Structure formats: structure tokens, C-alpha cells
Amino acid sequence: MVHDDRRPVAVEHPARALGGIAVTASIDRDVPMARPAQATWTAAMPNRSRTRSRRNILGLAAAAWALPNLAAMAADEGAADAGHVSALAYGADPQGLQDSTKALNAALADTMLNGRPSNAGRVLRIPKGVYVVSGTLKIGSGHRLVFEPGVRIDATRLPSEETSLFVAAGQSDIELAGNGAELIGSAAHARHGVEGSQTGILIYGSSNVVVRDFRLRGFATDGLCVGGESSGNRPSRNVRIENCEVRECRRNALSIVGCDGCVVVGGLFAASAGAPHGPWAGIDVEPNENQQAIGVKLVNVRTQDNAGPGLLFVPGASSVRKDARFDVEVVGGESHGDGSLDDYPAVRFACGGLMANPVAGQVALRKFQVVSPKSSGVGFTNWDADKAPLALLEDVSVLDPDGTGNARSNAARTGFVIYCDHRQAVQALGNIRLVRCRAEDRRKDARMVRGGILAVDPGKSVRKVAVVDFSVKNALSTLKYDFSTLASEVPGGLADASVEYTKQAAVDMDTDASLHEMGGRSLRATRSGLHFLLPQAANCRGLAMIVSAADAVQGTTIATEGGDHIRPARGAEGRQLILAPGRLVTLKSDGGSAWVEQ
């Protein structure tokens, strides 16, 4: 049995808490957002009560700012031409001596399509300089903002943890070109224990949005957030985020909460920490109740040094809907130094508790590399075998787990952990497929105990899991397996679970052994008279054991436990099977009391 001395951590979450911990927060309902009216910009401002759920950044009440048409001012300054207008024409101060909030909002109001002001549709340029901002900058439909190289927006004076910097709410056809612009939030002044909803760039219920080449740092809640109304009726659609670097935000670098199409290309999402309830992720894909995250694609993203997971996938709240989907694809990329010593692997698949209804779809993680996670590389929490979407990992590598050398359990020193422990709300963890994944310890003094493990506590099970062509290098365990099937020691521990190889070289065995951890591994007796003990068939339905005797090796015995028996392809059933020299057998559990030769 895996011993893990991790202690539960209270985690607030809408309608759930990660890790099977009791719910500690309520959900604030938002007010449906009105559509933009002529000459107005409809903005979404957070609606928070004193009891905060982790996701109420998107519980938004409708509010409107009626902004004057200031085209005349632009003309007086001579800053507008046929295609561009400068923010300086509206009084923005690039020296950072005066607050530029009103001036920038005036420039934005005069260049959005809402209300058709005189400069509608022109590109708004933000010239090089430092701009002090103390309130929300409101993005409208049709906005095209170009930040010249060398722009810094100093938003350290935002008045509260609830005030975001750039907000596009209910808008469309937006392009923000940062050219390396720095956006700096007010996390340094955030009150301890207050999560807030402050975001560097908030995209809420908006469509056809491109955000590229920004450097965001130090926002009280999230750096970037993509979401929509809690009703699920108006998600953000067709959002593209390119080459953004987000660091040192208190909750997440990027939160994807409600969307139908969100592509993130490149970028670095790093050093999330400080929010009172986590999850401190690099990228967190996590819909609220009634919402969905579909069409999410992360391409060559990098995460680094987050206090929580680099990548976090949480579909659980979507299960309130009977038709919910959760579709995420990750292609390429790397996590480096993410996670925590306690509850957070570098890549985490999680639900906060029991799921109400099945959620269709899948999370496909392909050609992704996890380097030096603080504990384990990939882990699963409450990933319901019957209700969670498929978790598909292909060509995923974990290198040097327990990257700090301080992990507190063997599970935390393992590459891939599929462990249904007693703290999880679900009875069965699963619906997981790993293909050509690998774990390796490259350090002179190795710390990795296992490459991967299927494990359970009594009363729990792992179901519908396939591990195909897994490989491990330099694990400390002396047992002859690549991916441990330790769960087969526990009654009902494995069901419809397999470790399999399209091609494998047999591992030589010269001592007696229990085969509980060696499911799917081809074992070859190299000495006569060896004795191998099978786990009970009822503990591991669908698991195969492969044993052979080398040429000239006699008396290799495969024995059963309890009242189990072996059903050979030829001959009578019995409690044990003795192999002739050179013979190979594959025995598969029928989930009852028999091991059946294949």
C-alpha cells in the first residue's frame, strides 16, 4: 500500500473543493449582462460577497460607462491619421507623472465601434513610455490596440483586489498587440486572505479576440482570464492568446473558465502563488457550474515555478449540466519546477468532489515534458472512472520527479501517479489512457522511486485505465516493473485496467517473487525452481501476467492466492502451473477466481 502523509488542505471552490475536501465556499450568482447600447460600453465588474468562491471573478454584474465622443480632441492634437490615432492625443502621460486612466479610456471610447464615434475602427497606438493607471481600461468591439515597444502600464495603484486592468465584456472583433508591453498589477498591496478578482486582461463573453506579446506581472488574482456568464449562455468564443509571459500572480497566470474555442500559443506562465485558496496554477482550465470549456488548445506553452500545478484541468463543476463537454488539447510544451511538496503534482487532472452527471470529451496531452516537479509529475484527484472525460496522455515525459529532494512520500517521488486514496470523494478513479509515456531520473543521486503506479486505499478502486508502452529509467525500486500495479493487493483494487506493450524484452528473474506490482511486464525465470505468486484475480480484473522459463530452466511455478485457480489453454485447471523449459504463458484475470491463459 502506498503510504502518503500529505495533509488535507482547505480549498475553496465553486460547488466543490479539490482533493475530495469538504466544500467551504458558497457560490455568488451573477446578474445577466446587457448587450452594449449605442454610445456605451457594457462592462463586467466582479460581484463578490464576503464569502468568496475561487471562481467568482466571472460572477459579473452589468454596469455601463457612457463615454463622450472625443474625436475633436484628437483632431486638435493632430494625432489622428487615416488609419491610426495616438493615445497621447487624449492626454495620456508617457512619463508616468500623471494618472492616465481617464485619458486612455477616452482614447478607447473614441476608437471602438460601439456607437460609431468619429475615430471608430482606427488603430489606437500606445507610444513608448510608462503610464500610471488606477482603474479599469474598457475594451470595446472592433478595437485594435498597438502598444509600441517599450510600453509599461503601471497598475500598482488599482484600488482593490476586485479591480481589473483591461476588460472586454460582451464585445467582439478585438486585437491587442503588445509588442512586449509590461502590465504590472497591485498584488504587492493585496490584503492577506482576500482572493479578489483582479485580472490583467479579462475576456468575458467576448468573441474573435486576439491577445499577443504581453508581459504581465503581479496581479492580485489572475494575469489573464477567459470566461463568460455563469448561465453558460454566453461563453467567450474564438479567443487566441499568443506569446504572453505571465508571472507572480496570486491565483493563476491564466484561467480558462468558459469558452467555445480558446487557443494559447507559446508563452510562459510562471510563479503563481499567494492567493488564500490556490490553486496557484500556471494554466487552469476550470469551468464554473453550467459552463463549459470546449475547443481549448495549448500549443508549446511553458509553465515554471508555480506553487501549484503548471497545468490544471478541472471539469467537475460542468457536470451540473446533463450535456456538458470538456475538450482540451495540449501539444508540445514544458513544465519546469511546478507543484508542491504536499498536494499538487506538476500536471493535475482533478475534480473537487463527486460529479453530478458525466462530462463528455477528453483532455489530450501530447508530447509534453515535465521537468523537476517539486513532487510527482502527473497526478489525478477525483477523476471519476465513469463520469470524467477521457484523460489521454501520449508521449509525455516526466524527468527528475521530487525536483527539490524534499518530497515526503514515495508517491511524491513517482513520475505518474494514479492513486485513489482514502481522501478522494470518488470510489473509482479512472478513464485514463497513457501511451508511450516515460519517466526518467537523470541525477547522479537519483530520487525517483517509481516511474508510475496504480494504487488504491482499501474500499477504493482504479478502473478503465490502460498504460501502453510505458518506459522508465533509473528508478530506485528494485522490483522488475515499469508501471507498478500495486493496487492488485487490495480487494477490488483494479478493474478493466491494463499495462501492455506492443513489443518488450523480457526481464530476467533469478529469485522468487510476488507479481502484484508487475502486471503486464514480461518476466523470464533464469534459474530452476523459482516460485511466482499471482495476486487474487478478483483484485485486478483484466490485468495480465506474462511469465516464461528460459531454455533449460525447469520447475518454474506460477501459484495462485486464496481459492483462485489457473485455467490453461490445454490441460486441467489447478492452483498452480509449472512451466516447461522455454515456455511462455500470458495469464489474464477474469475478475472472479480464475487466471485464464490467453
From TrEMBL:
<dbReference type="InterPro" id="IPR011050">
    <property type="entry name" value="Pectin_lyase_fold/virulence"/>
</dbReference>
<dbReference type="InterPro" id="IPR012334">
    <property type="entry name" value="Pectin_lyas_fold"/>
</dbReference>
<protein>
    <recommendedName>
        <fullName>Pectate lyase superfamily protein domain-containing protein</fullName>
    </recommendedName>
</protein>
<dbReference type="InterPro" id="IPR006626">
    <property type="entry name" value="PbH1"/>
</dbReference>
